[in-house]
Amino acid sequence: MAKYISLRLLGIPSEQLRVAVVKPLGDYYHVVLYFFPQNETDPWVLDYITYEHLGFRFIDSHILRLSERMRMILHKIKPLWGVNENFMTEFQGGLNEKITNTDPRHKFPKFSMALINSQRLLPPERG
Questions:
Q1: What are the phi and psi torsion angles at 125 (to 5°)?
Q2: What are the residue boundaries of the structural domains of the chain, listed by start?
Q3: Helices marked H in 36-80 — which ranges?
Q4: Rg, the chain, Cα only
Q5: Highest mean pLDDT range out of 8-17, 43-52, 77-86, 87-96?
Q6: E strand or H helix that includes residue 64
Q7: Residue 38 class from Cβ within 10 Å (0-12 exposed, 13-18 middle, 19+ buried)?
Q8: 44: part of which helix (H) or strand (E)?
Q9: Shortest CA distance to 97 belongs to which of 21, 30, 2, 25?
Q10: Cα(78)–Cα(91) distance, rounded to whole angstroms?
């Protein structure tokens, strides 16, 4: 959430950001931040778990593209949902993202409350 708000305060449009729920190998869910460069569909994954912690000492960067993270054997992730202050998306097989009609406040109440509480810090979207 802090990364999302920080990037928004730096002027990154909400359309380029998603707080994303992913399913790594195992029986748990994990939340990361996706940053989509303009006109690209393979986002950068900003995660607080370092790659060294995941057993990848040879990776210098803590930020990789989603397509790379999906291929990594020790930490293969499957993207499920992405949420920002304007819409919710569902990932359907790999990098295919579709905006859903689902209200994210019902599916992710903690995120929604944090976003609502932080909303006053965000600049208005430029259109």
A1: -65, 140
A2: 2-7+19-116
A3: 66-71
A4: 15
A5: 8-17
A6: strand 63-65
A7: exposed
A8: strand 44-46
A9: 21
A10: 9
Phi/psi of residue 110, each to 5°?
-65, -45
Taking only the tens place, the pLDDT of each residue in 20-51 is: 888 776 777 788 899 999 999 888 888 876 55
Burial class (CB in 10 A: 0-12, 13-18, 19+), 83: buried
Determine the 3-state secondary structure of 99 from DSSP: strand
- Reduced to 3 states (helix: H, G, I; strand: E, B; else coil), residue 18 is strand
pTM of the model as a whole: 0.73
Dig out the tokens for 34 from the structure: 């996706």
Per-residue pLDDT band at 80 (split at 50, 70, 90)? confident
Kindly compute the dihedral angle of the four CA atoms of residues 66, 116, 105, 102, in this order, to the nearest 10 degrees.
-60
Contact between 121 and 9 under an 8 Å Cβ cutoff? The reply is yes
Chain-centroid distance of CA 83 in Å reads 8
CA 31 to centroid of chain Cα atoms: 7
